[in-house]
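This entry is listed as follows:

___
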Amino acid sequence: MTSHSVSQKSSSITNQIVTPTPGVITPAGSAMRATGAYALIDSLKRHGVKHIFGYPGGAILPIYDELYRFESRGDIQHILVRHEQGATHAADGYARATGEVGVCFGTSGPGATNLVTGIATAQMDSIPLVVVTGQVSRAAIGTDAFQEIDIYGITLPIVKHSYVVRDPQDMARIVAEAFHIASTGRPGPVLIDVPKDVGLEEFDYVPVEPGSVRISGYRPTVKGNPRQLQQALNLIRKAKQPLLYVGGGAIAAGAHQEIKELAERFQLPVTTTLMGKGAFDENHPLSVGMLGMHGTAYANFAVTECDLLIAVGARFDDRVTGKLDEFASRAQVIHIDIDPAEVGKNRAPEVPIVGDVRVVLADMLRRCEEADIRPDEPNQTQPWLERINGWKQDYPLVVPQYDQMLSPQEVIVELGRQAPDAYYTTDVGQHQMWAAQFLKNGPRRWISSAGLGTMGFGMPAAMGAKMALPNEQVICVAGDASIQMNIQELGTLAHYGIAVKTVILNNGWQGMVRQWQQTFYEERYEASNMEQGMPDIVKLTDAYGLKGMVVTRREDLADAIAQMLAHKGAFMLEVRVRKDENCYPMVAPGKSNGQMIGLPQPKKLEEVTEVTCSSCGAKNAPNHKFCSECGAKL
């Protein structure tokens, strides 16, 4: 939706005028004398906001002054971050963990510009935020006043919509519109810029209830076209080598159950993007894990060889597709997405379907039930699934173990073993990819900056998730470089007793930068080593009144993770791992997904002397597909 500012206008209030009473919500339709700041905070409360992440400053003080009254009554809790970027990431993590709109505040000038990276992160990953910024008074706008910045103009390319509030009478409507826009259609961040005198000005405030606004020209398509739905089902029922390709849109829509039912009905293997992790159970036999640059070999082989690609809430990102003209080049494509701009943007589909992916898939499943639509032939995809299982056996994800040092992969595996149901956030780099490869997450339990790749995202995002879900275990997986991007948020964890657990994989490098320098730049390691200046984590956490620990030995790892998980407060665990470990598989830039480097060598058949049945334990010849004792599939 095209961003715009709200022009100043007047409106006559014919409703009854009442005076605000602390702690009492004024009925919708009744007017009362109030300030623009009151209208803003009251409107946020009406929209169910419980937490606001922010940092005050001069231009936003009228809003904070009103927030003081609401917070003193227990209506809303404000979380004082130590940097405004932390506020946007915390609101982002809050939104990803819950599906609700995250809210953050920042003042004018540098306070507003410090929000920009977090806004862009949310926009790239389609995360619903309402970002409120203070602004200089209306008369001072355009005069280069102290801490004046055109945050509306700066953020135009990285928001779904934006407003400059020039009349306090527009405040309630703008807040209602902002929440509606942020949370419907393809979600995204909405900016509300509030001049200081708008917050101070009194007017006759008429509340606007959530869901009551109607916005001209904004009507996201929810239901898929019936003819296209039928075309899609006709392709699915005939496909012999299909693949479900699931992205973040499935998480946003809450479509995990529908994806499971469709996959099981037609025996479709399922791959997810980095944003789509959790939309399908990765322990399910139909799962092939994540695809793309650091995806599983079997997912990348599957997308290369499939004859039908069913894209669900995915956008054919370059880190997924590799060389685009060779991505699923043998396949017909069904593309389901709520954003019509994404359908056909990078790959023209044979069947384009615009709509909410959960609604579309539910409609497809209903049609299948009513017409008894199933694969044309019994066990139609079984040879395809067996071929994929062969790739799984030949090219598994490898967890190396070295003498005298830990591998980062074994740290992630042990963490996942001890905390399989935790909410995980990550920073960006090698550790992010290893976490994506080895952690098996439920819906909304994987929180990572995918599109923008924002270092410093993980800890403040975990902070937001933990505030939203205080009874859940929330763990941030970070690297020694990225953790320092927003390490000041340890102060916020300490201030509010937010029990986030952080695991730092310390290899002494900007790991992914070093890997690329090694692989593509002839080992010219310029400005990527981080060993000099790395803080002592134990001393640092102690300075904040928090708990820290360093692990260097394999025999100490499991116990250290157990101690971290059992600790009642925030805990930072630094694990020193092999310095030159690379993240594989890897699709090199400009190569197709089938051209991966770093693959394990497949075992030759004669090297495998016997296969043990997982059901009965019997030993079988390596060429057997079924157990000779119990008949179970090997």
Summary: Residues 1-19 have pLDDT under 50 and may be disordered. The longest helix spans residues 84-98. The chain is about 35% helix and 15% strand. Residues 78 and 463 are 13 Å apart (CA to CA).
